[in-house]
Amino acid sequence: MEKDYTIALLIDCDNLSTDYYEIILNELSELGNIRYKRAYGDFSNSKNKSWSELCIERAIVPIHTFAPVKKKNTSDMLIAIEAMDLLYKGDVDAFCLATSDSDFCRLGQRLIEGGMYVVIAGKEQSHISLSNSCDRFLMLDKLKESLDASKETEKKEEIDSEVAKNSNTTNASTQTTKSKPEKSSVNNEEKVSAPTLEELKSKIANYIGKTKHYDNGWANYNEVVILLEKEYKQFNCKIYNAKNKKEFFKELIGCKMKTEGSTCRISMEK
């Protein structure tokens, strides 16, 4: 069982859309409880109006940062200062930095050095150094794509069900309009990216043979998951439209599973 963390969520509003807030909350709820929710940005800027409204609606503490120089983000320094204040206050053991800004790499590293579990919630266009500066990286745009696709499938199933009930109803095709990918200054080789299923199958086969309790083709399931998440900090089964990790291993990777006492064991299908 994973540790139940007490989390400080620090949001860089100038570098993140409110569209991702619920996704962040859902992911953090699996890790523990959020004690601090703070949003940093220039709220006099119309671009942050949606964040101003969300702060009121969702009880997020807004921290206004003045921008005396145009096109200069002043939130970064304040986030770093308050993160260190919370670190030394000692009432949290995990941080979530919600940003795609690679300037926060050193802050993530410093919090880990201070014994904190660090999550960074950013986008696929983020520089890979950002994902290497945390314990877990949330690819928000990929998670949103998966969530939207799931909702669209549910909607289509409801429509098909209604059509089946009413023979006089004319079938109408539904199309999902995909938003254009955002332009990024980061080269593809330097971006955070989701590993392919083929890559993961090969890696997981290697992990199974390397685990401490490997026996005749079977390995401890939890040990395999730890190795996977240690190498791929951006891994999230939901990106691959799996409801949970065990479904991901069984349905998408093709693993066999069995229970021995209270221990789940895993093997690759042959």
Tag the structure with descriptive keywords.
single chain; 270 residues; alpha/beta; six-stranded parallel β-sheet; three-stranded antiparallel β-sheet; 9 strands; 39% helix; globular
Question: What's the arrangement of secondary structure elements?
Answer:
Blueprint: E1 5-12, H1 21-29, E2 32-41, H2 49-57, E3 61-64, H3 75-89, E4 94-98, H4 105-113, E5 117-122, H5 128-131, E6 136-139, H6 140-165, H7 197-210, E7 219-220, H8 221-231, H9 245-253, E8 255-260, E9 263-268
Parallel strand pairs: 1-2, 1-4, 2-3, 4-5, 5-6
Antiparallel strand pairs: 7-9, 8-9
Description:
The chain is of the alpha/beta class and 270 residues long. The chain contains nine helices and nine strands. A six-stranded parallel sheet has the order 3-2-1-4-5-6, sandwiched between helices. Strand 1 (5-12), helix 1 and strand 2 (32-41) form a beta-alpha-beta unit. Helix 7 (197-210) packs across helix 8 (221-231). The radius of gyration is 21 Å and the shape is globular. Residues 169-181 have low confidence and may be disordered.
